[in-house]
Amino acid sequence: MSDAGQGVAASPRDPVREKVRELVPGIERLSLTYGAMDDFNSETDSDYTSYWRDWFISSRGNEYFCEIDEEYLTDRFNLTGLNTEVQYYQYALDLVTDVFDFDCDDDMREQIEKSARHLYGLVHARYIVTTRGLAKMLEKFKKSDFGKCPRVMCDSQPLLPMGQSDMANSSPVKLYCARCEDLYNPKSSRHAIIDGAYFGTSFHNILFQVYPIMLPPKTQRRYEPRVFGFKVHSAAALARWQADEREKLKDRLRGARIESGFEEDEAEAEEEDDDEEMEGDGFEGATVQQ
Amino acid sequence: MSSSSQVTESWISSFCGLLGHEYFAEVSEDFIEDDFNLTGLQSQVPMYKEALEMILDVEPEDDDDEEEEEEEDEEDDEILGDERPTAYRRASDRRHLRIASDLSVIESSAELLYGLIHQRYITSRPGIQQMAEKYELQHFGTCPRVHCNSTKVLPVGLKDSPGHETVKLFCPSCLDVYTPPNSRFQTVDGAFFGTTFPSLFFMTFTDLDIGSGIRNNPSSTAQALLQIQTETTKGTSTTPANVTSINGVAPHNLAPGIGAGNIYGPRIYGFRVSERAKSGPRMKWLRMKPADVTELDETRRYWENPPDDADRPHDDDLNMVDVAEGKSVDSRKKISARRKRTNGSGNGGGSPMDTNGVGAAG
């Protein structure tokens, strides 16, 4: 997680900037930079500073977001329907695209800020399933910007953000592990409050359809609850039943001549394990105690 | 001979108070002073004697004869009462005289020794009770898996010998292990908790309702909605209502976080991704559970189609499912064929495999 945002978190409301803006309307359009803005110039892909968006994606808690292209944001087609979802839509859009030029009191400004964040999130959900958006999110995925799977058997597989619903305000963002194909809650509470709709239910699946090479091999290794080296019966019986289901799946895939994607040479290893483990490290617990 | 002074904190409580040591229980001095509980540790821990003294905040007298005497006095009782080995006396005031380098070696030995004693202590009756209190207070955190809905977890080691793996967390709801969310626990050895503890814990406290959070406490409206949806579509469970135990576990406590309705199915724009797709689902088995848990009664299923040459065991020995007496018996053959037996009824010839009621005393 980057901490880069800490220093500039309050910048857009900075009084000097407000004053300058008052005196010279549209100053950002003239690509004038001052102070902290210098740092951001290199990162933007548009020909002038995307001040609000830079601030947004680099502020603490927003590490999951990628930067939306200027061209994408300014194409009205991409924003279809959002004007009914977002309050003060036009002002919010102006703020996001750095052409905000409206004198208002602090309360109003606060409202518009909130709307702008909401708007950015909703556009983000659409943007990340485009070719450019997918590529940006893939880079973040490769850097494990979204964290790693907490499941021990997944060996720190990088995660992807996802929503359980495409409707705003229905559930916070979750993280998807492609190795165990399960959903996890973000570790940090500052991520747990992000709306899941800003990522959507489809994005992570589309990413793997577009980049199948990024699919991790599935593992059959699993945790076996044991007491003094002996498997716990109820858990072991369930695990055997699940293994049967897995073999059925493999048979179905074999029948359809499709690769199952499971890690190799585990199948044989596991069969042997069942008996030999008892003599081997299965009893480790017991022997250590003697 | 009073145990520990009021002014200075004991080594044990200061160790448990360290950052990252939140999972540890405070092992009672009685437990440590019983040599039986320390059997075999001497060979695993360098500077064993000094380490033990450090843990107990005592220092030996100069002569070493008392070792033999103690061994004779040794009893197999788990708890010796407040009888302290006579050779030890308080010495925190003398400890600073030791050479510094020596001290740091002893300090790390003491931590290792304490961890290994801790592994044994938390499977003992007072220890598991102490851990139960910590569990109730959610000291070990909750499962990160979304469908486990913040089920409380327990610390576990993947190995019983130290130096292999750091501590992990076991979730009874999905029967899986997770890395603790905070990196400060990545310095804690898993062997200090051991492989046995969490499973033994849930076998001991069979009355705990593991799945209560999953059933009654949906943390958000979306999850509530999701639950309503899944419950109506899947018909949750077809387990006969009168089954009170399967393979030694109550059906509602058998991995409540998995099974139909708690499995993530990938979708794109609302359409399910086929399992034949390259990126299609392959791991659902890991979170599956039969709708009727009596399917997991393997012994019964095996003997329903017995091999020709086998001797069928006595009915009692097949009893891995417990059925509540008095309730209407399910019409299906599988169930009605079963001999009913109430939980823990005193029929002396109980199956040796029957683990039901094991935890009743604990």
UniProtKB/TrEMBL annotation, chain A:
Q: Where is this region: Disordered?
A: 253-290
What PROSITE patterns does its record include? CK2_BETA
Query: Where are its TM segments located?
Result: none
Q: Does the keyword Kinase apply?
A: yes
One example GO MF annotation: kinase activity
- Protein name per UniProt: Casein kinase II subunit beta
Residue ranges with Acidic residues bias: 261-282
The protein's job, in short, is: Regulatory subunit of casein kinase II/CK2. As part of the kinase complex regulates the basal catalytic activity of the alpha subunit a constitutively active serine/threonine-protein kinase that phosphorylates a large number of substrates containing acidic residues C-terminal to the phosphorylated serine or threonine.
Picking any one GO biological process from the record gives:
regulation of transcription by RNA polymerase III
Assembly with partners or alone: Tetramer composed of two alpha chains, one beta chain and one beta' chain. Tetramer of two alpha and two beta subunits.
Regarding protein family, the annotation reads: Belongs to the casein kinase 2 subunit beta family.
Q: Which GO terms describe its cellular component?
A: cytoplasm; protein kinase CK2 complex; UTP-C complex
Keyword annotations of the record: Kinase, Transferase
Automatic annotation (TrEMBL), chain B:
Give the quaternary structure.
Tetramer of two alpha and two beta subunits. Tetramer composed of two alpha chains, one beta chain and one beta' chain.
Q: Which Gene3D superfamilies match?
A: 2.20.25.20, protein kinase ck2 holoenzyme, chain C, domain 1
List the GO biological process terms.
regulation of transcription by RNA polymerase III
What protein family does this chain belong to? Answer: Belongs to the casein kinase 2 subunit beta family.
Give the source species: Paraphaeosphaeria minitans
Q: Give an example GO molecular function.
A: protein kinase regulator activity
Name this polypeptide is given: Casein kinase II subunit beta
Q: Which InterPro entries match?
A: Casein_kin_II_reg-sub_N, Casein_kinase_II_beta-like, Casein_kinase_II_reg-sub
Annotated region Disordered: the residues are 60-87, 298-362
Report biased composition (Acidic residues) as residue ranges: 60-80
